[in-house]
Specification:
Mean pLDDT: 84
Largest sheet: 3 strands, antiparallel
Strand order of the largest sheet: 1-2-3
Low-confidence stretches: none
Order of helices and strands: HHHHHHEEEH
Number of helices: 7
Radius of gyration: 18 Å
Strand content: 5-15%
Length: 172
């Protein structure tokens, strides 16, 4: 099953159904393609989409212009992160083989613009840990967390347990 199909089936559209001009599959398609081209965030995605308006209209069957940065930001900020990560992990598990002798690496990153809290000592941010295969260079699975609730080590331990459950031998 394709990534867009999984995202639209597994992720609830955070928008009200009244007056929707662009479907969730179309929104995710534009976001993913623009991200692959190095454009991140609502404004950059919208600019990229408008730059390639005719291409997206033809490929995605858009009946209206590419949405504004406000619409992209709204959908990206309000979409359930857990649903997005679960859909990605389901998709990636189909296409990223974990075979004998595969070397798996983990990496954690804080997600920009997710800091909340007034004082530095109380800052909370969302971060993500990815496990990726060395041979293919592809991400096998993701897991997000908030630094105030868990640490990167806790997430890596969880992901390692998942890999062990799949019968892989891990060396440290």
């Amino acid at each position: 099953m394709g990534l867009i199909k999984l995202l639209t089936e597994k992720v609830d559209d955070p928008r009200r159904p009244q007056g929707l001009r662009t479907g969730l599959a179309q929104m995710f398609s534009i976001v993913i393609i623009s991200n692959l081209c190095g454009h991140f965030g609502g404004r950059a995605v919208s600019r990229f989409g408008k730059l390639y308006q005719s291409t997206f209209t033809g490929l995605l069957g858009l009946k209206h212009p590419v949405p504004s940065h406000v619409v992209f930001s709204d959908v990206l900020n309000r979409a359930d992160e857990n649903q997005v990560v679960a859909a990605f992990n389901e998709w990636a598990s189909q296409y990223v083989p974990l075979g004998k002798g595969e070397l798996i690496s983990g990496d954690g990153k804080a997600l920009g613009s997710t800091v909340t809290g007034a004082k530095n000592s109380n800052q909370k941010f969302t971060a993500i840990v990815s496990l990726f295969c060395q041979k293919s260079g592809l991400v096998h699975s993701l897991r997000q967390y908030e630094n105030a609730k868990k640490s990167e080590i806790d997430i890596v331990r969880f992901l390692v347990k998942e890999l062990k459950a799949k019968g892989l031998t891990l060396f440290f």
